[in-house]
Design brief:
Blueprint lengths: L1 E8 L2 H13 L7 E4 L23 H8 L4 H12 L3 E7 L1 H12 L6 H10 L18 H13 L42 E5 L29 H6 L69 H15 L7 H16 L8 H15 L4 H13 L10 H7 L3 H15 L7 H15 L9 H15 L4 H18 L1
Antiparallel strand pairs: 1-3, 1-4, 2-3
Helix pairs in contact: 2-3, 8-9, 9-11, 10-11, 13-14, 13-16, 14-16
Length: 485
């Protein structure tokens, strides 16, 4: 039984590729047809396309009806062609229909029902071959996609036309900070339809059959002999009848099911990374010079240069062995200094501001946060929470250098971990991290139970899935620093 496969594409390029793939796969060139809008300039003839007048203009409706396509769908396909689309029609037998469907689906044909519903919302009532205007569907989607991409990549720009509101006589003003949370889900969408139409075709059949036919003939023979008694007896009245017979062909037909066409869908799963942007309200505080009417006095921290010797000393201890000059780390220390002196972060600890700091830093120095995070945090911790400076001398007195504890840490490693087959160099980062916890102003006055959760989260971010292995070394480093301070 013959089947008709029909698929509509938004562009001639996609349709031509499908036609070429069908022909390359073994479909006869005469069974693959391409319908285009006859009112527009037709693309140059291609070796893969079979032009046929029956698939152009008003003839397309009659052709689709003859192939068994329902009337409403035929009108929709013809309208799609009139609007600039390209229709691929394949006449196939049963054993090749499934393969033809697979090729047609490969370049995502138009969902004709969804497209028809869209046209009806725009006022379309039916196919009209004489319509003067045409709305090419192939140009709408790309334009929309470009607009969406531009919307997703739009950079936030300060509103230069924002109104200025001066508030006096109020002790507190609440500014709402709005932040978006993105929920990533999934929904089922249709990617197109491939329709199979079956029809009955007729073809002449010839078969040779031998037929037998009888015919009675009467022949008179002249005779001259004496009559016998039998001749005298037969001379009376007598009627003799002979029957003529003949054979004629008899045609009988019976229907048999010789094949079944099984239509099924193959389901595959894939992992797709969804990238989007979240918006939040950032409130920046800009202080103007004091006027004659003073409202509040702000303690201004010392200049960055005051802390530069302290930062250089920390660099020599923590990062000099990495082969990078101090000039590479100076922007990180400066950024940490700026975080602490920024009114936006007044009263917040590192855990609550780290996400904002990272986003801001990555915008200036992409993909470098993990490398410079420790220097940034040290710059932030080098100032007290209220923005007033701390002297380098006092901080040095409170903190001993890591090398002061190195011998003690090595002795502890030998007694506690030496039999585990790992070198001290593997445990040194854990002792160093415990040292950093003990000298961190954020954890001053807190016991191990109160800070363990934060310490674990921070450690796992740097060394995933190793907390349980190095926890005892980290705590020993923390305990030793606390005991001496």
């Amino acid at each position: 039984m013959a089947k008709t496969l029909v698929a509509l594409y938004d562009t001639f390029t996609d349709a031509e590729r499908v036609v070429q793939e069908l022909i390359d796969d073994g479909f006869a060139r005469s069974d693959v047809h391409l319908a285009l809008d006859h009112t527009k300039s037709r693309p140059a003839r291609s070796s893969s396309v079979e032009w046929d007048a029956a698939y152009e203009g008003a003839s397309l409706l009659d052709t689709l009806a003859d192939l068994g396509v329902p009337s409403d769908e035929a009108h929709a396909y013809a309208e799609g062609v009139r609007r600039g689309g390209a229709l691929v029609v394949v006449e196939s037998n049963d054993d090749r229909a499934e393969r033809g469907m697979e090729i047609l689906r490969r370049l995502h044909p138009v969902d004709i029902h969804e497209r028809t519903a869209q046209w009806r919302q725009e006022g379309w009532t039916g196919y009209d071959a004489n319509a003067l205007t045409s709305t090419p569907t192939s140009r709408t989607a790309p334009t929309t996609r470009r607009a969406q991409e531009q919307a997703r990549t739009t950079t936030r720009v300060a509103d230069t036309g924002a109104r200025t509101r001066r508030v006096e006589g109020q002790e507190e003003i609440a500014i709402p900070v709005v932040e978006e949370d993105i929920a990533i889900g999934k929904r089922e969408v249709e990617r197109g339809h491939v329709r199979i139409f079956s029809r009955v075709t007729e073809q002449p059949v010839e078969e040779s059959v031998r037929l037998r036919e009888e015919k009675v003939t009467v022949e008179r023979r002249p005779v001259d002999r004496p009559a016998t008694d039998a001749d005298v007896a037969a001379a009376g009245q007598e009627v003799i009848e002979l029957t003529e017979t003949a054979e004629e062909p008899v045609v009988s037909k019976r229907a048999r099911v010789v094949e079944e066409v099984v239509v099924q869908k193959e389901v595959t799963e894939r992992t797709e990374t969804v990238r989007e942007t979240e918006r939040r309200t950032d409130v920046d505080v800009q202080r103007e010079p004091e006027t004659a009417t003073e409202t509040r006095r702000v303690t201004v921290p010392q200049d960055f240069a005051t802390y530069d010797p302290l930062f250089r000393k920390h660099y020599a201890t923590a990062f000099a062995g990495r082969g990078a000059a101090y000039t590479e780390y100076e922007p990180a220390y400066r950024y940490g200094y700026e975080l602490r002196t920024n009114e936006r972060y007044r009263g917040r600890d590192w855990a609550t501001l780290e996400a904002d700091a990272r986003r801001d830093w990555e915008a200036r120095h992409p993909s470098t946060w993990e490398r410079f995070k420790d220097a940034i945090r040290y710059g932030w911790e080098s100032l007290t929470g209220d923005g007033a400076e701390r002297s380098a001398a006092s901080r040095t007195m409170e903190r001993r250098d890591f090398t002061t504890y190195s011998d003690d840490f090595r002795k502890h490693y030998v007694s506690a971990f030496g039999d585990r087959g790992a070198a001290y160099t593997e445990y040194e980062p854990a002792y160093r991290y415990g040292y950093e916890l003990g000298t961190n102003e954020r954890y001053r006055g807190r016991d191990w139970a109160a800070l363990e959760a934060d310490a674990r989260r921070d450690w796992e971010a740097r060394h995933p899935s190793t907390w349980e292995r190095f926890k005892d070394a980290i705590r020993y480093g923390w305990d030793k620093v606390r005991a001496r301070t």
